[in-house]
Amino acid sequence: MRKFLRKLFSPAVISIVLIILQLALIVLVFVYLDNYVWIAQVILEVAAIPVAFIAVNSRMDNNYKIAWLFFIILLPLFGIIFYLIFANKKFSKKKLRTLKDTSDMIVSVLSTSKAEDVINEIDREKDGDCYTIAQYVENTSNSKIFKNTKTQYFKWGEEGFEVIKEKLANAKHSIFLEFFIVEPGKMWDETLEILKSKALEGVDVRLIYDDVGCLGLLPRSYPKELEKYGIKCFDFNKMRPVVDIRMNNRNHRKLLIIDGYIGFTGGFNFADEYINEKVRFGKWKDNVIMLEGEAVFDMSALFMTDWLYNDKKKRGFADFSEYLPSRYGDQEEFKKGEGYVLPYASFPYTFESAGLNVYLNVITRAKKYLYISTPYLIPNKDIENAIKLSAKSGVDVRILVPGIPDKKTVNQVTKSYYRTLLESGVKIYEYTPGFNHAKMFLADDSMATVGSINLDYRSMFLHLENGTFLYKTPCIMDIKDDFNDCFNVSKVVTLEQVKKTNPFVVFGRLVLKIFAPLL
């Protein structure tokens, strides 16, 4: 049922349905209105011109523009309708004002707290890479860079889950969870039992999950079921039987915050495949990172912003300052954390893709090596060119992708990028044991980013995402060890192998690549 529902509501299925409807309409016109075919043709062509003009002059990514133009040309009637409904990312002024007001309140709490303004301490001359990225994120999303934060990296979802259960069991004040997928099974059932007991103790427990991500996994009444146990909950952007652009914007974030000073993120969701309790696509490679200290406030702020933006029952927060790490955590213990930590978020409601631009910053600042891990390698032209330029400049660029894909069509699009990347000197590794779901970048033993952001159009432009930028933190070497372990069990893709690909397969991939932004 889960697989069926996901396929039923996929962009590919919707596109096929539209094509069938378009063909049916053409047949009807020819059969019943054959004398007026030219009139229909002229009307559609005239209507397509202003829509194509709008698309070309929009602020969308150029690859998006090309894909939409093809769609409009191939399906002049439904393509126009589809574009006008789903391509416009502009959000209502009321919703944007709600986001801004919440963000401003949270920032004011931080500015009046004892948390240091670390950006002013970072020397542009000595730490220019860190300074530039931190300045960019602060200017675009109000997220700040922190020190006094301990970091611990877990190479596997199952390793991280054991620590998550331990920290949850010791929660005293609040537990916030925000995830794309929540599925009953060992991982979620064990977590839920802890959440129930904590709610009974008076701990403020809140859960946000994505309605489409959990389609076929949870009953529609699940938020009400959890509220019986004292757990506040809502399903993000509930699927409705109406056409709405916002249905295309999903909450793909992975956030778990405990008592305001312990935070977890990474590629994992709460389903058994993420801890290899259930085998779906071979060995599931994922990761978890834990933060303890001042940087966790930005994770709390992100969760609270999402909660207040969507909460129709007005179950807000009495005082944002209650979630400052210093209220419940040991400040002296925080100071043992080395380096700098910057949690950041990416929103689909603006044309500023923070996730994409943080990735670009890391790519362009790599001098010796650049390692990339992604389940889907569908970069836009800016990312693709930056990766190729880095490799051509002598940087050791390596990309880790799945050996066993979870989506065969998307995997074919991934492989359509192989040849040009390999010709530029990029090394591509396919993770032989199974599916690589980790999303992380690493450069020069000094900077890394770990989070929920895939290297594809949906993550970079359509979904709510989050990541954590790390600079000179001890866990960076653990991330490097993880990469090397994966490289050692992966198949190296060669240019000779790619050149031997069946020409019909190559052509099919190129066709899919055109529509990659719409997948």
Short structural description:
The protein is of the alpha/beta class and 519 residues long.
List keywords for this structure.
8-stranded mixed sheet; 7-stranded mixed sheet; 17 strands; alpha/beta; 20 helices
Task: Note down, in words, how this protein is organized.
This protein starts with a helix and ends in a 5-residue tail after the last helix. It is built from 20 helices and 17 strands. With 519 residues, it is α/β, with parallel strands linked by helices. Helix content is 45%, strand content 17%. The model has no long low-confidence stretch (mean pLDDT 85). α3 (37-56) runs antiparallel to α4, α4 packs antiparallel against α5 (76-86) and α7 (128-141) packs antiparallel against α13. The strands form 3 sheets. An 8-stranded mixed beta sheet has the order 9-16-15-14-10-11-12-17, with helices on both faces.
